[in-house]
Write a structure and sequence with these properties.
- This protein is α+β, with helices and mostly antiparallel strands and 540 residues long.
- Helices cover 47% and strands 10% of the residues.
- It has twelve helices and eleven strands.
- The chain has helices at 51-82, 97-136, 161-181, 201-223, 234-243, 277-280, 282-312, 347-386, 402-406, 408-427, 448-470, 484-490, and strands spanning 87-91, 182-187, 194-200, 338-342, 394-395, 428-431, 433-435, 438-439, 443-447, 497-504, 511-515.
- The strands form three sheets. The chain has a five-stranded mixed β-sheet. Strands 4-9-6 form a three-stranded antiparallel β-sheet.
- β7 and β8 form a beta hairpin.
- α2 runs parallel beside α4 (201-223), α7 (282-312) runs antiparallel to α8 (347-386) and α7 packs antiparallel against α11 (448-470).
Length: 540
Amino acid sequence: MAASSKPTEENFHPSSLLAYDALSYHQGSDSIISDAKITADTKTDFYDRSLTSRRYALVGVACSSIFSCSCIVAGIVIVANYGTFGVFAVNLEMYALRKISLLREILALILNLIVTLCTESTGFVHGIALRSALASESRLHFNTNLRLLTAARGWYNPNGALLNGISAVLLIISYNSASLAVCYDVEIQPQTDVQGVAFAGLAFLILGAVLLLQVMIALSGIRAVKILTWSSSPFDLTAALVHHTQLTPATCRCMRSVCDLDTYGGPSKPSEAQPSAWHAHPSIRKVIIFLWVIVAACAGWAGFVMYIWDKDVGMHQVSPNALTTQTWSFLPGGLSNFIWYILPGADPVVCIMVFVNMIVVQGPLTLGLHCSELIANVIRDEKQWRRATGRKGLMTAMNPVMMIFTHPICLVLFVAKPFLHWMFGLSFNILITAYDGELVQPLVLMFTAQIWNLCIVLFIFACFFTFVALRQPRGPQPAAYGHVQTLANLVDEWSHVMWWGHKEEGIPYCHAGTSDHPLPDVKMDCIYAGSGAGSRAPLS
């Protein structure tokens, strides 16, 4: 990577660091170390530490802590007043049973949404800590990684394999507890039974505890490592790594994509199409396969329930109603087709059995949605990079909240997480009913139509993510997908807003790179190697 021929507008001085916190970028990004453009010779005096992202993250963690503590307090109060398996009941005798059922499902969906907001906040902090830990070990390759399935060295490291595994289990239990926290209540009275909605104290206590433990693990992770930047942008991360000499740009690779890392980095001609994320990131292939395994397992589950119902029809552990177009519905009802079984054992054993059942069945769905973050974020990083050839250019700063709403795939995933967990709760329903304020032995109900509904939505979800993972970007701009070494090779001039294109004519090689002003398109019939590349570099 060659030095820029354009002089910097002002010289960098160490005293400018003293005023770091007072500076503010006019587009709403965080303070900047220097406005000077960066070249390979001066290394990197510019990158966004993203104090705004840090504030958002800490506010999110604080809200998660408040919510988790509130759940713990509510759970303790309910358990203290109504017993270990007691509930706080809300009398709804004025409403019909169908309205009570709908209210219960709405409350469960809202609780799942809150859990998603809490786990996303702690997950963002944990992901930043893990990314910095991997960078300190020179093992960071992509801006986005499988957060719970990638670990730093050391079993007792807050970002290590042990606590990552514990975090994965806590994440699953979070959604399990949310599904069990809201239940039906039946008060037996001489004249008639009064029905309503109840809140299970033990489930709220467990929900608050697991959310608080996730907050503690995330905070311990950021305390154990130096955070280079809080920004989600791959460009701020790459600039920070180059600035701290943890990454060195390679020469003669200005037209090489992330898929060319294993080839000799010599001169090359531009390509009409770029590799897909499927070929660029090895973990994406595993995630896509895992998503389709979940879809197949869900279809097999529905088929198994139909087989059991057909074999045991007329018995007391299946519903009398067959699965027809008349009994098929989105929400389970009195005419639904289902099978059921009772969880046996004493009270503590039942409690353990309930969570074991939920973890075994719901765990793959939770992990599948978590792994889908990798695809969403990698595609987001590539879309940001490809803006460098657009009219407005590439803005390196990235707002962590706005990126959810400005990137469709991130928005789809954010909505899908609570919705799919809620749909799972409709399919695999552990019917926790309270009689006179006391939980009774739970029933496990598997609703055939709702399982097929979940399977159909999962199929659409898997098709969508498979499509975006296999889609090849068009144009000669080399694909990076957030790969930090590739970005370091392609970006030779850093600024708040960057454009990529043809920069220098040369014999025998031309040079493509970035600039703070729009650049002409690269020439498809030219060979590109980099500024100053001589005839010694062979064509590959």
